[in-house]
Amino acid sequence: MTQSTASDFDDQETSYYEAHRKVYPRDINGRFANLRKIAAWVLLGIFYGLPWLRWHGRQAILFDLPARQFHIFSLTLWPQDFIFLTWLLVIAALSLFFFTAVAGRLWCGYACPQTVWTEVFIWMERITEGDRSRRMKLDAAPWSGDKLARKGAKQFLWVAFSLLTGFTFVGFFTPIEELGGLALHAELGPWETFWIFFYGFATYGNAGFLREQVCRYMCPYARFQSAMFDRNTLIITYDAERGDPRGGRRRGENPRDAGLGDCTDCTLCVQVCPTGIDIRSGLQSDCIACAACIDACDSVMDRIGYARGLVRYTTQNSLDHGRSHILRPRVIVYFTLLASLCSGFALALARRAPVALDVLHDRNSLYRVLDSGEIENVYLLKIMNKDGTAHRFQVRLDPRHTANTTLQLDPSTPPFDVPDGTVFNAAVRVRRPAHADDRSITPLRFAIEAVDAPTLRADAEARFFAPRE
Amino acid sequence: MSQAVPAENLSARGRLWLTVTWASFLTASLATMVFFAFVDPTPIVALLTPTAAIPTRTALYSVGFFFFWAICATAASLTAWLMSAPSDDTTIGNERR
User: Fold this and answer.
1) Which terminal CB of chain A, N or C, has fewer other CB atoms within 10 Å?
2) With the C-alpha atoms ordered A70, A75, A76, A78, is the resulting torsion angle positive or negative?
3) Tell me, what's the pLDDT at A121?
4) By the 8 A CB rule, do A452 and A391 touch?
5) How far, CA to CA in Å, does A84 sit from each of A46, A76, A350, B37?
C-alpha cells in the first residue's frame, strides 16, 4: 500500500503504538460491533450457563474426571471412547481450516475466548475508567482519590469476574451445585481451590493484562493461518486506490479538486483497533479481523456523505478488479474432508456399543477343588452400561464356545441390575464336574444380555484353569 | 497499574522463558489428556504405596499435569539452550580471539 501523504497520525500518535505501550481501544458501535456483541453474549451465556443445566437428574454437561466419565446430555463417554474425543478435535481443527480459507480470521474476531473475554474486560474498564481519552488521561495523571477509586473498582470487577470464570471452569469437571455449596461454606478441597485460582489468574492475565499480546506472541494459529489464505479469502482491508491520497478536507469540498482520495485521515480506524494496528498499512498478521475499523470508517463515511466500504470485507482478487471464487480446490478439499469426518463421527457415535463386558480371572487362586471333587474358577465380570437407562443383565456361557466342554455356570448366579453410566462388578463362578475333562486350560466365553432388551449384549473371553490330572 | 509489559521491552532471555513455559504448558495439557484417558492412576498409586491413603483422582491428575509440565519445560529449555550457537569467545580453543 502506498502512503503518499505524511499525516498527523504518523507524526504524533504512532509513538503510542510503535513503542508498544498499552493499547487503548476506542468504543465503537455499528453492524459488526453488534455481531460481536451477540457472539459474545451467546458464547459467554453458553460457558457460564451450561454447567447449571440439569438433564435427567444430573448435570447435563459434566466432564467427571474423578469418575472417569464424560456426560454430555444423554451420552456418557468412557475412557474407551477416547477415539471420539480425538475425532472431535480433528473435526474442530479442520473446521478452523475451512472457515479460515473461506472467510479469513472469523474465529479470531468473533469466537476466540481471548477476544470475547478481552471485550468483557475492556467493557469493565470503560464503565469504571471512562472512554478512551479519559482512560489515557487517567493513566497519565498522578495518583489521586478519584484515580484510586476508579482503578480499584476496575480491579475489583476484573478479579471477581476472573474468579467466577475459574469457578465455572472447575464446575465443568466437578458437579457445580456441589461446588457452589462448598465454596459458600469455604470448604473447597485444596485442588478445586487451586484450579479455580489458577484459571482465574489465567483469565485475568490474558484478558486484563496481556490482551493483544496473546494473539501476537502466544497464539500458534495466528502464526500458521496465512497458510490457509489465498487471493479469494475474505479479508478486512483498506481500499487504498479509493482512499489515497489521504487528508483533511472542508465540508462540501470535492476531494478530487483538492487532489485527495476518500480517506479523511481521521485515524478513527486506528483508535478502535484492539491490537493497535493501522489497517491502512495493508494486511497484517496482527489483525484479528474484528471489523471494528469497518464500523469506525463507515460511521465517518456516513457522516460526510461518502459511500461506505472504504475499509471493508473483500478479497484480494476483487480489490485487484478480478473475480472472487468461493468454490476452489482448497475449499472443496476441506469441505469434503470435513463432511466425511462429521458424518463418520455421527455414524460411529450412533453405532457405539451401549454395553461392554470385561472379564478378570480371580487373582488369588487359579482354581479351587470343592469337596464334591468339582473344580471351580471365580471370575470378576465388569459390566459397563452406557445405554442411558438401567438394565438387568443375565450372564451365561456362550454355548458356541463351550459346547464341547463340560463347563457350567453356577446355577445360582442371579441377574445383575446395572444402573446407567456405571461399571458393575459381578463375581461369578464356573464349575466343572470331577474327572470330566483332563485339560488344564480351557477357553470359554461369557455373554451378557439385557433381560428387557435382548439386542443389548456383549461378550468376552476368559480361561478356565484346572489341575493337571 | 494495568500497564501491559511490552513484549519488545522484555529481554531476549525473558521472552525465551515465557515461550518455553507457554509451549510446554500446551504440550503438557495434551500429554495429560492422552495419558490419563488410557491410564487410571489410582491402582498404580495403591500398588506403590499400599499403606498410605490414596489421594483423590483430582489430586493425582493435577500432580500428573505438573509432572508433564516439568518434563516438557525441560525439553523445551534444552532445545532453546542448544539452539543458541556457542558464541566465538566462549568456544573451547577460541577463548583468546
Assistant:
1) C
2) negative
3) 94
4) yes
5) 22, 12, 12, 12
> Which residues, in sequence order, are CB contacts of B25 under 8 Å at separation 6+?
B69, B72
Contact A65, B23 (CB under 8 A): no
CA atoms in the 13 A half-sphere facing the CB of A17: 20
Nearest residue in A to B62, CA atom: A191
Mean pLDDT per 10-residue run, chain A (469 residues)? 42 39 80 91 94 89 86 82 87 91 88 92 91 88 91 95 95 91 88 93 91 84 83 89 84 80 89 89 86 92 88 88 84 94 91 86 86 89 84 87 77 86 87 80 89 86 84
Buried b (16+ CB within 10 A) or exposed e, A366-399: bbeeeeeeebbbbbebebbbbbeeebebebebee
Question: Would you list the domain boundaries of chain A?
Answer: 355-465
State the pLDDT at residue A150.
92
Pick from B27, B33, B32: nearest CA to B65:
B32
A56 contacts A50 by C-beta, under 8 angstroms? no
List chain B domain ranges. Answer: 19-83
Q: Is the pLDDT of residue B95 over 50?
A: no
Q: How far apart (Å, rounded) are the C-alpha atoms in residues B70 and B61?
A: 14
pLDDT 10s digits, B30-52: 999 889 888 888 888 888 877 77
Q: Which residues from B are below 8 Å from A192, CB to CB? A: 58
Name every chain A residue with its beta carbon within 8 A of the beta carbon of B6.
19-21
How far does chain B reach from its first CA to its final CA, in angstroms? 47
- Tell me which residues of chain B have a C-beta less than 8 Å from any C-beta of chain A: 1-4, 6-9, 15, 18, 22, 26, 33-34, 36-38, 40, 56-59, 61-62
Chain B residue with the nearest C-alpha to that of A204 = B2
Residue B86: the pLDDT is 66
The more confident residue out of B9 and A176 is: A176
Q: Report CB contact under 8 Å: B62, A191.
A: yes
Contact across the interface for B56 and A66, Cβ inside 8 Å: yes
Residue B79 has pLDDT above 60, yes or no: yes
List Cβ neighbours of A227 (8 Å cut-off, separation of 6 or more).
Answer: none
Residues ≥6 apart with Cβ < 8 Å to A425 = A380, A381, A382
Which residues in chain B are contacts of A82 at CB distance < 8 A? 34, 37-38
Is B38 in Cβ contact with A213 (below 8 Å)? Answer: no
User: Domain A355-465, CATH 2.60.40.10 — does that match?
Assistant: yes
Distance (Å) from the alpha carbon of B90 to chain A's nearest alpha carbon: 31
Distance from CA of A209 to the nearest CA of B (A): 6
